[in-house]
TrEMBL record, chain A:
Pfam families: Cytochrom_D1 (PF02239). This is Cytochrome D1 heme domain protein. Coiled coil: none annotated. Residues 1-21 form the signal peptide. SUPFAM superfamilies: C-terminal (heme d1) domain of cytochrome cd1-nitrite reductase. The lineage of its organism: Bacteria, Pseudomonadati, Pseudomonadota, Alphaproteobacteria, Rhodobacterales. It comes from Roseovarius aestuarii. Keywords: Signal.
From TrEMBL, chain B:
This is Cytochrome c domain-containing protein. Residues 18-99 form the Cytochrome c domain. Gene3D superfamilies: Cytochrome c-like domain (1.10.760.10). Pfam families: Cytochrome_CBB3. GO terms for molecular function: electron transfer activity; heme binding; metal ion binding. InterPro entries: Cyt_c-like_dom, Cyt_c-like_dom_sf. Keywords: Heme, Iron, Metal-binding.
Length: 381, 100
C-alpha cells in the first residue's frame, strides 16, 4: 500500500507540474499533412515545442478546440477523429468514424464534436469527452461547410444535392431542418462570428448563396449573381476555402471561383461593393483580426505568393513569395503577426503584419493548416 | 571544392526541373496537388478514387485526355496549360500502374 502511494505521489510529482505550469492561450497546432503528425507551437516564443504523432492521413486535416483550449479534435482525411492533449502532447482518444472526411466543428457548449464526411456521405456527432457516437445523420451526399451556431446547432451543406441542413442537438433527439435550392455543388461555406449569416460558395453556379439563420425558416438568397458572366472560367486547380474571418470591417471579402479576383460584399445588404484583381485563383482570403488588411494565397501553380489587400482602397499594397506551396495563414489573436505554412519549403514562416518583415522560420514536415487556440472561443472556426 | 559541389548541385537541380519527365516532381504533384481533390493517398475526396484498381476501366489514351482536357460539368480542370504531353504520359502510367 505504502509503495503504491509512493508511486502515486511520484507520478503526481512528475506529471502535475508539466500539466499545470503551462497555459494554453498562446499555443497552437500545425498539421504535418504527409506525416500524420501535429507540431505543438508557441506563438509568443515563435517556436515549436513538441510533436504529436500517429494521427493517420492528415491531408486536408483541420481541427477544433475544447472550450478550455486544452484538447484539440483533429479531423483526418481517412475518417479518423483524434483527440489530442496539448499539454501532455499526446493522443488521448481516437476513433475511425468514416472512410473519408473533410472537416468538423464543436458545439457552443463544448459537448459535441461533429464530423463532415464524404464517404459515407453525412455528418456524425460524437461526445467530446468520450468520442462515443451521439448522432448519425446520413445525407446520401458528400457534406461540406460544417459550422457550429448558437443553440447547440450545426449547419452543413450537401455537395451533390445543393441543400443546407441545420441540426439542433439541444434536445434528446436531433431535430433537422432542410433547406433546398442553395445552388449547384456548394464546395465550402462560412458562418459569421455572430452565427447569423451562412454563406455557401458554389462550384456549379455563378453566384454564392446566403442564409439569414435568424429567420425561422431561412430562405436562400443568391449573392454576387453572375460575377463571372461573359468571362471565360479559368481552370480551378484547388477549391477555395471559406471561413468566418471573411468579414473585413463592414464587408465580406470572398474568393471568386474560376476568376483571379476577390469579391467584396456589403455585410448588411449583401450587395457587391467591389472586386480586386489578384495574382491567381484565391484559396484563402483572410482578414487580419482588425479588418484593415486581407491576406490572400493562391491555387497551384501560383501557390508561392501572398498578396495583401488594403480594405479601404481595395488595392493590393504588398506582394511577396514566401516559397513554394503556401497552403495556409493564421494570424495571432490580435493580428500583430501571421504564421504561414510553406509546404514545399518544409517551413512555417512568421511575419510582422505591419512592416511585412520576416521574423522567424520554423522547420516543419509538409506543413498545412495552422490552428491557434484562440479558435476555441470563436464560432464557426 | 565546396563551391564546385554547390555549383554542380544547382546545375543538376536546374536540369531536373527542365527535363521533360522528372518522375519525383511529378509524383509529388500527383499526391500533393491532384491530392487537393483526390486525397494525398489518391483514395478520393471531393474528386473520385484514382488509385490503380479504381482506374482499370480507362485505357491510357482516354485517361490522358481526361487529364489534358478535364471533365466538363465536374470540378476536374484541364491540366493542358500546365503539363507537357510527356509529363501527362508519365502521370498516366504512374496512375494506372501505381508506379510499379
Amino acid at each position: 500500500m505504502q509503495n503504491q502511494l509512493r508511486v502515486f505521489f511520484l507520478l503526481f510529482a512528475l506529471s502535475a507540474p508539466a500539466a499545470f505550469a503551462q497555459a494554453t492561450g498562446d499555443l497552437g497546432l500545425v498539421v504535418e499533412r504527409t506525416e500524420g503528425s501535429l507540431l505543438v507551437v508557441d506563438q509568443s516564443d515563435r517556436a515549436r515545442i513538441g510533436r504529436i504523432t500517429g494521427l493517420g492521413d492528415l491531408s486536408h486535416a483541420s481541427l477544433v478546440y475544447s472550450p478550455d483550449a486544452r484538447f484539440g479534435y483533429v479531423f483526418g482525411r481517412d475518417g479518423g477523429l483524434t483527440k489530442v492533449d496539448i499539454l501532455t502532447q499526446s493522443i488521448v482518444g481516437r476513433v475511425m468514424q468514416a472512410g473519408n472526411s473533410i472537416g468538423g466543428a464543436i458545439s457552443d457548449n463544448g459537448r459535441y464534436v461533429a464530423v463532415s464526411n464524404y464517404e459515407p456521405g453525412g455528418v456524425r456527432v460524437f461526445d467530446a469527452d468520450t468520442l462515443e457516437l451521439v448522432a448519425d445523420i446520413p445525407t446520401g451526399s458528400k457534406t461540406i461547410g460544417l459550422v457550429d451556431i448558437p443553440g447547440t446547432r450545426f449547419v452543413f451543406s450537401l455537395w451533390d444535392d445543393g441543400e443546407t441542413w441545420i441540426v439542433d442537438l439541444s434536445d434528446a433527439e436531433p431535430e433537422i431542418t432542410k433547406i433546398t435550392g442553395m445552388g449547384a455543388n456548394p464546395y465550402d461555406a462560412l458562418v459569421t462570428a455572430d452565427g447569423r449569416t451562412y454563406i455557401a460558395g458554389l462550384f456549379g453556379d455563378d453566384h454564392l448563396t446566403a442564409l439569414d439563420l435568424w429567420q425561422h425558416k431561412p430562405t436562400p438568397t443568391p449573392i454576387l449573381e453572375g460575377y463571372a458572366a461573359g468571362r471565360e472560367g479559368l481552370p480551378v486547380y484547388k477549391m477555395p476555402h471559406l471561413e468566418g474571418w471573411a468579414l473585413a470591417g463592414t464587408e465580406f471579402v470572398l474568393p471568386a471561383v474560376g476568376q483571379h479576383e476577390v469579391l467584396w460584399v456589403d455585410a448588411r445588404d449583401l450587395i457587391q461593393t467591389g472586386r480586386t484583381k489578384t495574382h491567381g485563383q484565391p484559396v484563402f482570403a483572410i482578414a487580419r483580426p482588425d479588418g484593415r488588411h486581407v491576406w490572400v494565397n493562391f491555387a497551384h501553380p501560383l501557390n508561392d505568393t501572398i498578396q495583401v489587400i488594403d480594405t479601404v482602397s481595395k488595392e493590393v499594397i504588398h506582394q511577396f513569395t514566401p516559397g513554394p506551396g503556401v497552403l495556409h495563414m493564421e494570424f495571432t489573436p490580435r493580428g500583430h503577426e501571421v504564421w504561414v505554412s510553406v509546404r514545399d519549403a518544409g517551413k512555417i514562416m512568421i511575419y510582422d503584419t505591419q512592416n511585412f518583415e520576416k521574423l522567424r522560420e520554423i522547420e516543419a514536415l509538409n506543413p498545412s493548416g495552422i490552428f491557434f487556440t484562440n479558435r476555441a472561443h470563436k464560432m464557426g472556426l | 571544392m565546396n563551391k564546385v559541389v554547390a555549383f554542380l548541385c544547382c546545375a543538376s537541380t536546374a536540369w531536373a526541373s527542365e527535363a521533360p519527365t522528372d518522375g519525383s516532381a511529378l509524383k509529388r504533384l500527383v499526391h500533393q496537388d491532384c491530392g487537393s481533390c483526390h486525397g494525398l493517398t489518391l483514395k478520393g475526396g471531393l474528386g473520385p478514387d484514382i488509385r490503380p484498381e479504381a482506374l482499370q476501366h480507362y485505357d491510357a489514351q482516354t485517361l490522358s485526355l481526361v487529364i489534358m482536357d478535364g471533365v466538363e460539368g465536374t470540378a476536374m480542370p484541364a491540366w493542358r496549360p500546365l503539363l507537357t504531353t510527356s509529363e501527362i504520359d508519365w502521370m498516366v502510367d504512374y496512375l494506372l500502374t501505381g508506379g510499379e
